[in-house]
Batch of 2 targets.
Target 1
Amino acid sequence: MEHLRILITREQIAKKVGELGAQITRDFEGESVVLIGVLKGATIFLADLARQIKLDATFDFIAVSSYGNSREQSGEVKLMKDVDQSMEGKNIILVEDILDTGLTLTYLKKQMMVHKPKSLKIAALLDKVSRRKQPIYGDYVGFEIPDEFVVGYGLDFAERYRNLPDVCILESEEKSS
Ligand code: IMP
Ligand code: MG
């Protein structure tokens, strides 16, 4: 059996997403941005963040190979779906649910630079700083969290729990009773 413990409430998330949106709005005043969501975990964050950005904005989505049904990153990242439109000369904001080892975003950043954008920023709702294996930082980060496996607000475990409104720690019951 698995047990869920709330780590970040929907109210805390809403407040933070509002702040991040305001910051992006200020940083790109008078310009257009392309929000590129990393499927599928970033969809809910992107949907909320986008509505807090008061700029001319478009969406695109990319997909990478993921953890599968395990909690550990294989170390290998593969692009499964690229952007639909040209990114040349655009202000790209890569939107991700969580920065963990940093392998995914390091790979995606490199991949997106091939498209010659005007600028490239990273927005991540969560950041597990202590797990980092690559020197990569988010430009717009919601919350730094401890090294716990979390689900909800887009984040999954074996595709489940993405629809939870709060970010929760997924605990396995065997640990205690
Ligand atoms: P990274 O390449 O290790 O930075 O991993 C980033 C990806 O791992 C994220 O896009 C998530 O899909 C997944 N991930 C990392 N930590 C968690 C977690 O605690 N819960 C759910 N997914 C996670
Ligand atoms: Mg993901």
Target 2
Amino acid sequence: MSQSQLDAFRGGDRLVRIIGHRGARGIMPENTMVGFEWTLRMGVGALEFDVLLTKDDIPVIVHNHQLTSSTTRDQDGQWLRGQEPTICDLTYAEICGFDVGGIDSRSAYGQRFPDQAFLSHIRVPRLVDLLELVARPCFAKTALMLEIKSDPKAEQPGVARINTVKRVVDAVRNTGLSHRTILHSFDWDILAECQRQAPDMPASFLTQMPENEDDAGEDSALGFGAELRKAKSIPELVVKAGGELWCPYIKDINAQDIARAKELGLLVVTWTVNEIDDINQAIELGVDGIVSDYPGRVQHALLARDYHWLPTLQDKEPHARRFPESATV
Ligand code: MG
């Protein structure tokens, strides 16, 4: 392991990292500044989030390539209807006309997250908005798992890839956060471009076996499915691609692959782990980190075992671990 960014994702004795998925999607609107700040104030040490480019080349934090009708309202407060507008066809100013603070509980997507707070007048953030938040001294230890999405409609995918990675890397460098950022993608061609343009930022190799279907309300990422199916060992494939961090889907992991990953010196961070049984299974399998929509559930599962998610808290007296420090307000 050569890069210090990886330390924030490394587990250890009684230590399993928690990474807040899109902030804390189970309880706060996903990929929003209010959700990110809330998650950090819980004392979670790392955030996962998704970045796409707008028509005017601004990196913004949003998961799907379209503004999704189940999470987007127009200026009159009405849920979007009909064709969903595509992020890369909208300028950032146009995107700011939409409200992404709520989830439509009548939708299949909304039914997955019945506990999510319903807010209004919340905009899609720019990447730089989150970077500036995390650059504040009170969040000096926060690590970023920055997912870059491929544009499935790009006429020239190679050109789009180079441009997207450049815009993202420039934003991270300009805010002085490259030493706390790892670049994360299902698209291993994007990761190869990241390694070329930003060898100082580790790449995180996302995998999901093709037989696991996409979840309701989410578009699928351009991935590496066929190669995964052919591979004898996915950890070996990650190492061959130059990876030091492997990020498998929770339903795909098993003890044998985790053991092989450890032999190869890979960190293993699994996603998206929301159910208590899955959280316990991930801990028992010895993963380094857990990406969750419900970081509070993971905190409780760790505390129940006298584990922690931040090394600074791990060595305190047991009673102190029961009342962990949140980030300073
Ligand atoms: Mg993501």
